[in-house]
Give the backbone structure.
Amino acid sequence: MGEPIVLILSTDATVTPRSIVERIRKHTNDQDRITLGNTGDQPESIGYPYQIHTKYYDTEVVLCAHGSAELSTVPDAILKRTEGILIYFDAKDRTFLDRLPAYGAFVQQHEIEFGILLCSALEESGTDGITYGEAKSQCTVLDVIELEPTADEEDNEVAGAAEATGVDELIQAMHNYIWSNVNIHRGNRNAAEPDEDGAALLSAGLVHETDGAGDADEDDDGPIREEDERIIEAELNGFERLLTEVMNFQPNTSNWTRNERLMYAEELAEMFDNMFEEDGDGVGHP
């Protein structure tokens, strides 16, 4: 089916979807172009591969710069692979608020869980343009990120030792989202391949347990003791519960705000860290 697509639209004639792609990838779009579903008089859709590398997983998505902000012009072939959507708007143009409900309905209809509205900077007052509160009230399923926040907002972020801002905040959000094709990092790439219930991985950890004197118990080649079996079973149960939480991350958090999802993702990441912490020999065990 191909890599997940992040559909990029712009309702601001002065900002093209391709320019947003360049800001995300942080280099020009001269290379790595992928033509996506251009037929007849339909607006051009150009894809650009974007690799995501994090501590926990690797993946690649396709940033699709679509030549029209009209949702009806997006080809079905692209929609079937779309897992994310970025919509750029001019915060000084209050008529955009009238279009927001349609965008929200589109996101829900196609079950797109990663959706963000982008703008240069939001306005403080409705008399000057669109405020954050107005944007969220018109469309609760899309978060909002300012690509060029005002100096006062940046100073507040620094003073509070807060998160990334601007395009870095967008990139961070993309890296924190769990895409359908992620390849989760293993705690130990050199350890024996686990069997279906993961017993090989957990048993490898037990082999390196030491006795009270600190010496490895290398002479015990007999059957696994009942106590060790209980430990393995408890660890397997904990691992299965954690996997269940990860698998249910998207449906369980679909109505949460982006910050709530990020905090929950960080909690899951810490749980993985605690369970697969690597020791000095590179063997991961709880």
Notes: The radius of gyration is 24 Å. The mean pLDDT is 77.
